[in-house]
From TrEMBL:
<feature type="transmembrane region" description="Helical">
    <location>
        <begin position="134"/>
        <end position="152"/>
    </location>
</feature>
<feature type="transmembrane region" description="Helical">
    <location>
        <begin position="43"/>
        <end position="62"/>
    </location>
</feature>
<feature type="transmembrane region" description="Helical">
    <location>
        <begin position="12"/>
        <end position="31"/>
    </location>
</feature>
<keyword id="KW-1133">Transmembrane helix</keyword>
<dbReference type="InterPro" id="IPR006603">
    <property type="entry name" value="PQ-loop_rpt"/>
</dbReference>
<feature type="transmembrane region" description="Helical">
    <location>
        <begin position="98"/>
        <end position="122"/>
    </location>
</feature>
<dbReference type="GO" id="GO:0016020">
    <property type="term" value="C:membrane"/>
</dbReference>
<dbReference type="Pfam" id="PF04193">
    <property type="entry name" value="PQ-loop"/>
</dbReference>
<feature type="transmembrane region" description="Helical">
    <location>
        <begin position="193"/>
        <end position="216"/>
    </location>
</feature>
<protein>
    <submittedName>
        <fullName>PQ loop repeat protein</fullName>
    </submittedName>
</protein>
<dbReference type="InterPro" id="IPR051415">
    <property type="entry name" value="LAAT-1"/>
</dbReference>
<keyword id="KW-0812">Transmembrane</keyword>
<feature type="transmembrane region" description="Helical">
    <location>
        <begin position="164"/>
        <end position="187"/>
    </location>
</feature>
<keyword id="KW-0472">Membrane</keyword>
């Protein structure tokens, strides 16, 4: 692993396309959240982890001397994910708008300070040929970004494969951003395996989400047709609600298990 040297024109063009997509990817999601005043089905943890991943992501890109678009990309990504996280706090956790705004701006200031500190901390060592600090930061970015997807399987199991609260235009734009960024790395003189894997996994996970929802639509086409004939939506029909209620809410199950354990401990202390 070494910093990029001369950046080919193709890498810059592909990187620019990927950055344009990732600079606007979350705008449809943010608009959807604002219009519906709801973030149900959109995990706040995912948005927070994605925003935080922009810190090591940006530091790594600068240290590796990626093409300029790929250096700008994590900054835009961090900002948009942060705004979406603040919406989750306002609409989901019922925070006041000014409280969420103040916390978000404070987070951005902290993130900026950490990223600048990381860049100045790792550059001298990297110039001397010490590679592990840069690799460690890259791994941190990788884990934070991929970790943001962790709540998604829980949401899909809970809703029997249905994608709720996540805008499909956002998913499409995000997929394109990851794909063109991956192609930009391919076009560089030296392929970055860590971030190439990251972009590829983003593409695969988001395609899996779309496929999951399409399968849900196929499985429920009869229910949705009958509900439409009765002038109801899927969620309004009793048959639809009954079918949807059969999902596995693993998060609730885990909470109940740990809740029972705490109750037993409390009863034991009282005795």
């Amino acid at each position: 692993m070494s910093p990029q040297g001369e950046i080919p024109l193709a890498a810059n063009i592909l990187g620019t396309i990927g950055t344009v997509f990732w600079c606007v990817q979350l705008i449809p999601q943010i608009v959807r959240n604002y219009r519906t005043k709801s973030t149900e089905g959109l995990p706040a943890a995912m948005m927070f982890l994605w925003s935080a991943s922009g810190v090591p992501f940006g530091a790594y890109a600068i240290a590796q001397q990626f093409n300029i678009p790929l250096i700008v990309q994590p900054q835009c990504f961090c900002a948009l994910c942060g705004v979406s996280w603040a919406q989750c706090m306002v609409y989901g956790q019922k925070w006041r708008a000014w409280t969420a705004t103040l916390v978000l701006l404070s987070l951005f200031a902290v993130f900026a300070g950490i990223q600048v500190g990381l860049v100045y901390a790792i550059r001298p060592a990297y110039a001397r040929g010490v590679e592990w600090p840069v690799l460690l930061i890259g791994i941190m970015a990788f884990l934070l970004l991929i970790g943001g997807y962790f709540p998604i399987p829980f949401e899909l199991l809970k809703r029997r494969g249905r994608v709720v609260g996540i805008d499909f235009i956002f998913l499409g734009i995000d997929w394109c951003g990851a794909f063109f960024s991956l192609m930009s790395l391919v076009a560089q003189t030296e392929f970055d395996t860590l971030f190439g894997t990251l972009y590829a996994l983003c593409c695969v996970i988001e395609m899996a989400m779309v496929v999951s929802h399409l399968i849900w639509r196929l499985r429920t086409r009869g229910i949705r047709k009958r509900a439409k004939e009765q002038g109801e939506s899927f969620d309004e029909s009793s048959e639809g609600r009954q079918w949807q209620a059969q999902g596995w809410d693993l998060e609730a199950m885990i909470k109940r298990i740990f809740g029972k354990g705490k109750d037993l401990e409390t009863e034991g202390e009282k005795e």
